Amino acid sequence: MLNRRGLLAASGAGALAGAAGTAGAFLLGQGEPASTAAPKAAEPQVVPFHGPHQAGIATPVQDRLHFAAFDVAVSTREELTALLVSWTRAAELMTAGRASSPDDSGEALDLPASRLTLTVGFGTTLFDRAGEDRFGLASLRPPALADLPAFEGEKLDPARGGGDIAVQACADDPQVAVHAIRTLARIGLGRVSVRWSQLGFGKTASTTPAQLTPRNLMGFKDGTDNVSGDDLATLDQHVWVGRGDGPAWMSGGSYLVARRIRMHLEAWDQVSQEDQEATIGRTKVEGAPLGGRGERDPFVPATLPADSHVRLAHPSANGGVRILRRGYSFVDGSDSQGRIDAGLFFLAYQRDPRRQFVPLQRRLAADDRLSTYIRHVGSGLWACPPGVSPGGHWGESLLG
Amino acid sequence: MLNRRGLLAASGAGALAGAAGTAGAFLLGQGEPASTAAPKAAEPQVVPFHGPHQAGIATPVQDRLHFAAFDVAVSTREELTALLVSWTRAAELMTAGRASSPDDSGEALDLPASRLTLTVGFGTTLFDRAGEDRFGLASLRPPALADLPAFEGEKLDPARGGGDIAVQACADDPQVAVHAIRTLARIGLGRVSVRWSQLGFGKTASTTPAQLTPRNLMGFKDGTDNVSGDDLATLDQHVWVGRGDGPAWMSGGSYLVARRIRMHLEAWDQVSQEDQEATIGRTKVEGAPLGGRGERDPFVPATLPADSHVRLAHPSANGGVRILRRGYSFVDGSDSQGRIDAGLFFLAYQRDPRRQFVPLQRRLAADDRLSTYIRHVGSGLWACPPGVSPGGHWGESLLG
Known about the structure:
10-stranded antiparallel β-sheet; 19% strand; globular; homodimer; alpha+beta
């Protein structure tokens, strides 16, 4: 297999015999990604890039996250398309564990693909920036890509919200995820700028619920009832945009809501375990619904405190609404009061935020006992197009 | 083995049959850490806490870092001692993969010890805070714990420097490192406050140089010639404080210098690989000294550019001076210009900074071609006492 090192050596001062062939293969990969840069399913660390849906949504959640929201500086549709084409070519190579180009920055050179996925979403401002139709896309804006309403108690920092294009990089190695985002920023130099970004170090909800459920920084298991990435019927019903749902270009795509949720951990840590459990609605150690003994014990909403988090968030309390969560814990140092700047970077995929995230969050913001200990401080919404076909690119359904 | 879950379940609402025995073992562990909380050498994920030197210095470098600098709020020596005793008891448990207490915050409950180490250092302000001898320790301040001088080109942020006590938490799982620092902050509530902290996601220098050398965010291998953690003679000569080196309480300890080094990655990425290699003095892919082919090829300083980083930093150019590095890459989002706020969190241990870090850094700051692409923005110096004896505590040699 052509690896990252071979590609780079071919262009650098350390070029050795045989490098010419490697460079040739690289160029071939650039021109014919379908045949050469396509990931190899036999390699367990490679998540296939191409497919009907973007990778990084139903994909089993990787350990680490680097998320970036970009603003686009180019002004024509052709330039926007060219950007997405060059990004897609680099993504095909990097997700296959290869260097992004002969002058790759190199920090992931010795590392395997690490199940890297790159998932792209288009923000409201790409379609309508304060009334300006920058790329002639206004008529293609999906109704489901409606600006999120204000929620009770939130305190959003504009420096941690919005963005024309979001890229979610997930990998089992943080250096691989960081390398991928940095590489896209570098490719886009002068064409995009990073508006904000977020590192996540610990997944808090998995899409493989049969496996060990991870814990968030409050110490509780998070994601016990999350949508399973191999439950195709549930994905079709709640996650993937259907054919009749809006503009055709989003069919097979999904809507991403990101929320930076600060946890007041110093306050939480002063609460007794019993009160914590009543607030969440589950036991701390086992993650069992209160009154039960095991994490998978039957969930009987009426037996839980009316204002407990899992009772209010449960599909049974929300008309069956479900969302697919892929959140990560973050710690960004300390604030000016010496409190840990930490919490949950909530990432949720869904078919229509107007029917899923919005009513769910409205309810939680109003009634959830957990609200005392958290605050939403960043927010974003993006339309993630369907998967990329071999030879195609991230903008193919939207931009042609 | 008693694990984290057993301890917590004993106190929570989910307590089951058998929990009483677990709780008893916990209490025993509190009172007699030597016999019960001592780590088990047979478990590869446990790094022994006790010993002549603190763990986390010569220990093979773990993958992840959470570093915190605390300021002490108590005013008496007795209170300071009590803090360090309670911290030590929790550290003994956590490094053994156990809960820190029955009301542990819980986010590491299901995780193994992950080779967690906790390493403590005492800052200059513990001995002399603007002329104030807060704890009667002024006469015990080692001459080697001299304030670092200003270096050319640095731009230090006071919000990322200093601190009465530093704690370095290293582990292979970031959640374990984060949990450990958070737990010490929680135990110290009202007695200490976090002054600043830093997460590191990728080790950049290993103390096992025979293994694969990691890469920093500039894409170059970093630490090829680092001090090996099992090279006892070199450790004694360059890392561990000797008996005649200063006050007796530091014998077997080491001095830690931390520097937050911002990398200007956007600028670096515009430089050709050839120029990058001339700046570093090594090839990018192999990490070979320029002119050589392999990473371990003979290092001939005269063949490298006079202002290249590795030539200037090499022991042969610095009177044989060596330091033990345990640095980590960091990415803390983006700055207000959209540039990645990333770089190297440099951690170096040594016998005497006045003869090691200070002259070395003075030279690099003045002449190193790499200086164009980096800036030192945070700094700290701490005296790390020798290892803790069973039943003792981190302050035992200093405070008795």
